[in-house]
Structure formats: C-alpha cells, structure tokens
Amino acid sequence: QSKTIGVIGQVMKPGNYILQANRSFLRAISMAGGFTSTALTDDVRVVRTDKNFGSGYAYKVMVEDAKVKK
Fold first, then answer.
1. Closest Cα partner for 39 from 69, 9, 63, 14?
2. Exposed, middle or buried by CB within 10 Å (0-12, 13-18, 19+), for 42?
3. 58 - beta bridge partners?
4. 47 half-sphere exposure, CB direction, 13 A CA radius
5. Whole-number Å distance between alpha carbons of 62 and 41
6. How far is Cα of residue 29 from the mean position of the Cα atoms in its chain?
7. What is the pLDDT of residue 66?
8. DSSP bridge partners of 20
9. How many CA atoms lie within 13 A of 25 on its CB side?
10. Is-contact 18 3, C-beta < 8 A?
11. pLDDT of 15-63, one tens digit each?
12. Which residues contact 66 (CB under 8 A, 6 or more apart)?
C-alpha cells in the first residue's frame, strides 16, 4: 500500500510524493532530490498526523545513524 507524503524543508525538490509501504524516510529524501548543501542534517524531523484526531507527532531522526555504511 502506498501513501502520499509531503517533503518540505531543505531538500532540492520539496513537494508531494508517493511512497511505497515499508520505505524509510531516507527514500523520501532521495525522491525529493536529497538535501541541499545548507541543510541541517542533524535536525531532521518526521511528522506524522493522526487522521482520526487531527493531531501530529514529530520525531527527531538521526540521519547519520540511518545511512547504510559500506
């Protein structure tokens, strides 16, 4: 199942994207062209909205911890 998500902030191409189920936030950043050269990658947040209650939850994400190391 896919979902439409919004990617905003310091990415190359902010906008709405269709993200397939079980994909990470890094995939969403990639779809948006990656971070800009001035992006603060140590202050990335994922916001989820509860459709039933209209409230949102923000999670700080550690980008360096999420990257795959070779």
1. 9
2. exposed
3. 47
4. 10
5. 8
6. 5
7. 63
8. 2
9. 20
10. yes
11. 999 999 888 888 999 999 999 999 988 888 888 887 777 778 888 888 8
12. 24, 25, 26
R_g of the chain computed on alpha carbons: 13
Q: Which helix (H) or strand (E) holds 31?
A: helix 25-31
Instruction: Name residue 68's amino acid.
Output: V
Tell me which DSSP letter residue 23 carries: -
Residue 27 has phi, psi (to 5 degrees) of -65, -40
Which tokens go with 20?
């397939």
- How is residue 22 annotated by DSSP? T
35 closest CA partner among 59, 67, 70? 67
Which amino acid, residue 13?
Answer: K
SS3 46: strand
Which residue in this structure is represented by tokens 């409230």?
A: 55
